[in-house]
Amino acid sequence: MNDVFETPPVLEVQHLSYSFRKHRALLDVNFQVQPQSLHGFVGPNGAGKTTTLKVICTLLQPQAGNVRVFGLDVVHDVKEVRRRIGFMPDHFSMYRQMTVFEYLDFFGAAYGLSQVERDRIITDVLTLTDMDGRKDDLINGLSRGMQQRVSLARVLVNDPDLLLLDEPASGLDPRARIELMEILQELRKMGKTIFISSHILSELAELCDSVTIIDRGLIKYSGPMDDLLTDTEEHPAYVLTLREAVDPDPQEQLQALAGVLRVEEVEGKPAWSISFDRAMTDTNNLLRGVLDLGLPVASFTEDRKHLNQAFMDLTERGVRT
Amino acid sequence: MKTPKISIGFPLLVKELTEAAAQRRTYLVRVSYAMLLFLAIVLFFWSGQLTTTSNPFSLLGAGKRMFDNIVELQFYGIYLFLPAMTCTALTAEKERDSLALLLLTRLGPWTILVEKLMSRLIPMFTFMLLSLPLMAFAYSFGGMQSYQIWGAIWFLSLTSLQVAALCLMCSAYCRTTVGAYLSANLLGLFLFFLAPGVAGVIFRSSRWPATFSGMDVYTITVDRVGTALAWGDLFQWSIPLMFSTIIFFCLSRFFLLRRAFAQPRHLLRKIFRGLDNVFWKINSHSGGVVLVGENATLPEDKPVQWREIAKKNLSQFRYLVRIFLVLEFPVGLVCIVALTSRGVRASTQLREVSPILFLLWIISALIVTVQASSLISSERSRQTLDVLLATPMSGREIILQKMHGLRRVMWVLGACFLTIFLSETWWYGSAGITPAATTTAATAVGFPPSYGTTFREPFLYYYSGARYFVASMLSVLIYFPLIAWLALWIGLKTKTQTRAILGSLALLVAWCGLTFACGRSDFVASLPVVGTGYFDLSSPLGMIYRNEYNDFGTSQGVSAGIVRGNWFRWLVVAGNFACYGLLLYLIRARCLRDADRYLGRRQDHAPSARPAAVRNAELQDVQPVAAG
Q1: N or C: which end of chain B has fewer CB within 10 A?
Q2: Nearest to B627 among A25, A79, A93 (CB)
Q3: Integer Cα distance of B323 and B331 in angstroms
Q4: What are the boundaries of each domain within chain A?
Q5: Do A17 and B604 touch (CB under 8 A)?
Q6: Is 0.80 topped by the overall pTM?
Q7: A91-143 per-position pLDDT tens digit
Q8: Domain A237-303, what fold?
Q9: Contact residues, chain B, for A217 at CB < 8 Å
Q10: Does domain A3-229 have CATH number 2.30.30.240?
């Protein structure tokens, strides 16, 4: 475990359960989000992501279990929790007949900020989201990507410590998505904690420090992203890629190296995945052994699973009935 | 080459009927229709036939009248229910973005329209079948002729087709169901009733202009004639009905593709912006005279209230001034004409003003109901409510600030009412109508002197200008907020704006119209219970009507020892408004107390969650469901 996990969590969900009449949405959900981290929340459609988010942002009351935000109970300390979070739902939630500034000012007032504070914060968030040139534009005339920026600016208007974002990149074009992710990274650097539910796994894998995978109301994994994407400590794997194919096939030579447990050819290119026993060798010795074989090495990198693969491994096929 | 297999079927019709069968609303509407029909028939029969004679043999042959009553009610049923059922036909597809998918299938535009039309007409015809037992009952009294039955079937079917085609046309044109419903009703009112009436006056004919309305044609050709009409004549009378149906249907086809992807637009906003442009242009020539300026303010500490006032068309000051002028001008004009007219003065009653008052009530109730029911439901429909609920504002604060914007509209409408109330109060006060003057007043308008003391003419008894004014003002001060809070309550409980508006309007019509009609029926009056004569006060319309016509009953007394004198009338007014005031308080308190729950978030004072172990043990057994 990382050292960072020893600090008190920003968000702590314990034994959370929720059901809609006879249908279970969440069952005994447990996870934590650490301060100043970017935590991904992943799951198939209908897994219970939005329900979890709504419980965290105090819109739904947990039927069982506890949810704490900055140590505050979402049941008893409702107003304080609402002040410290910023919630972006999976739809735009725009008042289209307002200008960007009016919209942000409206929510600033709804959070009880004074006019002076609002002016200062709105100027800052417009700069951060690169919308300061459009502050007097009607929201109705903005593109989808622009509206998403305004939505993000709204989330920031009360200067929350924890951002809860439900599918923030859905429906955006690649440029808008990349720009949104850049803004999120910037926010993390500013000390914000970000809890993001998304379906775009490749971007989450690059962006997030930790991840929770939920399926059919049950938590399948919660913890650091690295732990999910790399193999176990005892049997790590590395991918050896050659500049060109060699003859004879080096698979048997690689298999013969000390400590190597398994060698598998990567389909379609001159590359092999090599897993080894850390008790018998280490990465430096393995690389030295490969170079001694005289192979034209192009790269030697850690074999990380894709989040897609981890996601498919952990979640069940089919749809919920 | 393989020839495509031709298959005959009605996939859209099947889908529509299957969807309707799965909805609880279908059965609620059907039961409501049946209940209203049977209740109305009981009231009709009771007052019209069954209580008018003590000799049972004299009822023989009364079946014809009863049958006409049933058919008349069926016509009203078509005019009332069919628009609500048909206006959703295409707008529902537009609202859920599925019309494009339909147009991409092999179903052609005409097929879509025909199947949509049939999907609404079939339920309507099943509604009409509900009256079969009543017709059998009427038939047992004798007097019915077969031509009446065929005529009724023919004109009821034609009217159903005509109304459904009109609604389908509005549904094809409008972007939203609410727009389609309102435009269908307004168009129907104009085309079937107002236009023929005006044409009748202009051309001095009571027959031909009425031929666009199936009910009128039935009355003229079947009901009043008394003999069977030749099929040729019947067909001839039906031509306007059929012609208008074909025109509506062709226009539906015309609009279906052209308006399939129409962007939503706010008609009132568009009109106001057009007027703004005109005024700006005039201002550029007149040197920039601004009567009502627009302040570019920002919310201070009540953001929701600010939005309601600064961003809604019906709450902005300059727009309210326009609405006031539009309503006040005809009201003021009628009042001035009525007050300065000699003929009116002689009749002791401002007869021209009363219809204006009732029309103003209808318009005002419509505006307040639509606005209030949309306050929350529009936020829900536009998905803007969640972010508002995630702020620290309490549900109570949100609702109170929302209602603040509506209060401005109510003040403007109230000002128009004040014009009427002051005119009438001044008129009656200046005319000096007192109980002692009733005989003189009756003589002046051409009635015998005894009229003033024996006949149930309302204005000649215990007229009090003060009571009229107080009751009138109380009606505005209590009924307006009552309607607003009731509509808001329905809006809080419903998921979509369309449902909220239609539900509120239906409740308002049922409460004001039906309760009033029942209360004033002979059936209720004949019930052996003290005070049934005042049952109509259970409708808000009851007091408005009684106050306007000073109709508090004759002075013979309610029961022994209680005479309906002036003080009794004050008592009725006070009791009525105390009850409605209490009802207003209860509804308002309910809305505010459970505001968070109604808005869709948990209450701030909700109890803490149950122990995880206990609850989880229970939840182990339940089924998983899509929720994320």
Answers
A1: N
A2: A25
A3: 13
A4: 3-229, 237-303
A5: no
A6: no
A7: 878 888 888 998 999 999 888 888 888 999 999 999 988 888 888 898 888 88
A8: Alpha-Beta Plaits (3.30.70)
A9: 624, 627
A10: no
Task: Inform me whether the C-beta atom of residue A172 falls under 8 Å from chain B C-beta atoms.
Answer: no
Q: Which chain A residue shows the shortest CA-CA distance from B378?
A: A95
Please list the rounded mean pLDDT of every run of 10 residues in chain B (628 residues). Answer: 62 88 86 87 70 67 82 89 90 85 85 93 92 86 82 91 95 88 87 75 61 81 68 81 93 90 72 76 69 64 86 77 87 83 53 83 91 90 86 91 89 92 76 50 54 45 72 94 95 88 88 82 67 79 86 53 64 92 96 90 53 53 47
Same domain assignment for residues B136 and B190: yes
A and B: number of Cβ contacts within 8 A? 164
What are the chain A neighbours of B625 within 8 Å (beta carbons)? Answer: 19-20, 23-25, 46, 320
Amino acid of residue B258: R
Q: Of A88, A85, A79, A90, whose CA–CA distance to A33 is shortest?
A: A85
Q: If contacts are CB pairs under 8 Å, which of residues 89-108 in chain A contact chain B?
A: 89, 91-95, 97-98, 102, 105-107
Interval A270-294: pLDDT, tens: 888 888 887 888 888 888 888 888 8
Q: Where are the alpha helices (DSSP H) in A92-173?
A: 100-110, 115-128, 144-156
Residues B251 and B309 in one domain: no
CB atoms near residue A103 (< 10 Å):
24
A193 close to B (CB below 8 A): no
Least CB–CB distance from A75: residue in B307, B606, B615: B606
CA distance B128 to B33: 9
Interface probe for B, chosen from A75, A154, A214 (most Cβ of B below 10 Å), is A75
Nearest chain A Cα distance for residue B600, angstroms? 7
B303·A107 Cβ contact <8 A? yes
Both structure tokens of B596: 């968070």
Q: Which two tokens stand for residue B404?
A: 């603040």
H/E segment holding residue B551:
none
